[in-house]
Amino acid sequence: MAVQALYALQNGFFGFERSGLFYDERSGEKTQIVVTCYLVKTSDGTILFDTGLAPRAVPGLLRTDPLARFSDDDLLVHRLDSIGLEPGSVDAVVLSHLHFDHAGGASLFPKSELIVQQDEYAYAHHPASFFASFYYQKNFDLPGYRWRLLDGDTELVPGVTVLRTDGHTPGHQSLLVELPGAGPVILAGDCAYWQEHIDKERVPGVVWNPTLALHSLKRLKTLARLTRGRIFPSHDPVFWQTLKKAPDAYR
Ligand SMILES: [Zn+2]
């Protein structure tokens, strides 16, 4: 097995409306959510899943959002440093999608391959007006970078497989990581914000196509059942407390 370790990296917290969390809720009440990235070490290279918030967006967030929390340690470069890595040693960056809290750090990786679904890449450059505020062009308008555009499920290296999970956005993707000891882990990205989305099959409130989002969530649950794997949601502050955090790792 080529996979060696999976590290969970926290990239701050911010406030989010209940109506944005759950498709069938109308409450504007805000709750604090965590921003997560994951680093996968394999014998074939180092793969980062998601890049969190853009460092340049943090001061504004802290000024305007009373639920925002972001320390120096939370910077992605410092999280990588805590496990002995720098951006230049990351071979590939898998972006679940190009929303601002997942693609914000992409510009830190000019040497890495940036891996996204081609439908996501196209849509992010020309989003519908209802979705435009989630796509900050500056985050992914990086023409000199090494973009690799996928069309569907793709095995990147043995034990690390991109799973297409449309719905939240037109080209959303999740990542299956087959750990030798800890077993399979599916990094859901925004296919599942919270554990509750998985358990109760709830669709995110921020959504491009709720029916597809539900189908993708069910597909991840089926895969997790068949592989006896676990699903890690993207933004759950309670689930985050239960995780082993970097520099500790799942192996
Ligand atoms: Zn999103």
Structural features:
251 residues, Metallo-beta-lactamase, Chain A, 5-stranded mixed β-sheet, 25% helix, binds zinc ion
Question: In a nutshell, what does this entry contain?
Answer:
The chain has 251 residues and is α/β, with parallel strands linked by helices.
Description:
The mean pLDDT is 97. It contains 9 helices and 11 strands. It has one domain (3-242): Ribonuclease Z/Hydroxyacylglutathione hydrolase-like (Metallo-beta-lactamase, Chain A). The strands form 2 sheets. The chain has a 6-stranded mixed β-sheet with strand order 1-2-3-4-5-6. It is globular, with a radius of gyration of 16 Å. The chain is an alpha/beta fold and 251 residues long. It binds zinc ion. Zinc ion binds at residues 97, 99, 168, 190, 206.
Summarize the helices and strands and which ones pair or pack.
Blueprint: E1 3-17, H1 18-21, E2 30-42, E3 45-49, H2 58-64, H3 76-82, E4 92-94, H4 100-103, E5 113-117, H5 118-125, H6 137-140, E6 146-150, E7 154-157, E8 160-164, E9 173-179, E10 183-189, H7 195-199, H8 210-227, E11 230-233, H9 237-242
Parallel strand pairs: 3-4, 4-5, 5-6, 10-11
Antiparallel strand pairs: 1-2, 2-3, 7-8, 8-9, 9-10
The chain binds zinc ion.
Zinc ion binds at residues 97, 99, 168, 190, 206.
